[in-house]
Specification:
Two copies of one chain form a homodimer.
Chain A: H1 7-17, H2 22-29, H3 33-40, H4 48-58, H5 62-67, H6 84-92, H7 96-123
Chain A binds a DNA duplex through helix 3.
DNA sequence: TTTATATTTGCTAATAAGGAAAATTATTAT
DNA sequence: ATAATAATTTTCCTTATTAGCAAATATAAA
């Protein structure tokens, strides 16, 4: 058995968080719904492809699915109420170094999502 | 070849980068050395436990091992050319956690600039 | 309750994993 | 270059795991 991860429970938690039934998740994954049940109960182990698809569906890393999430901290930010377009103009006024730092962070995040979207497109075609 | 990832090639690359022979890696993983060969050549797929151990041996995330970095690199290159306002719109589509991370960085930078402007005004008046 | 939906289980065929050893492919030394 | 050594890949075979269907059980809603 697998002592290093309770991956079944993690997948179940993410499925619930995304308000999906086992059947719905099975459909997205392209597997039989009984497999979801057995994976969640530790009878089967998900394949690599399963993990990649789950990562894309849940929008979390494979590590999060396999190892479980350690920080579920919710970030409180009152400045989030400031309209986004206001901030854009302010970014443009920043020093070049700060500006590129922000752009790097943005690009990393967007890349992450684009990559997920790209994978998702492969499944639905 | 319905392969979502060329995980075998990735593992091989990481093994080489760590200057390990298949036999040495097999020993660290606790598997037969022939399995490393088969995994690297796509005959077998590594188990979840294998991935966890590989992640720790290579000191990279499971996602890096599974997905590699090449695809992401390409997407990132495309993003460099995308105008800022386009990116901002894309931020709205991000998962909540990523979104607030970006906004936190932006706000930090903007606060920093405000403070700097404030100081400058004191000295020049 | 009854009905509908969701999840789990039993069974067998298909597929993959694992070990031993042979075959192939570098790599190094002479 | 050839021979010897190390490393990698492949072959054969047995065992273990998984896929898919049908049926059973559980959960939820009316």
């Amino acid at each position: 058995m697998n002592q290093l991860s309770n991956i079944g429970a993690n997948i179940k938690a993410y499925r619930k968080a995304n308000k999906l039934s086992q059947g719905q998740l099975a459909e997205k994954l392209g597997v039989h719904l009984t497999h979801i049940s057995r994976i969640e109960n530790g009878k089967y182990k998900p394949s690599i492809d399963d993990l990649i698809k789950l990562s894309s569906i849940f929008e979390v890393s494979i590590d999060d699915i396999v190892k479980g999430k350690t920080d579920e901290k919710h970030i409180e930010d009152d400045l989030q109420k400031t309209p986004l377009y206001e901030k854009i103009k302010m970014i443009e006024e920043l020093a070049e170094r700060d500006k590129s730092t922000i752009l790097n962070v943005i690009d990393s995040m967007l890349t992450k999502k684009k990559f997920k979207d790209f994978l998702e497109q492969q499944f639905t075609s």
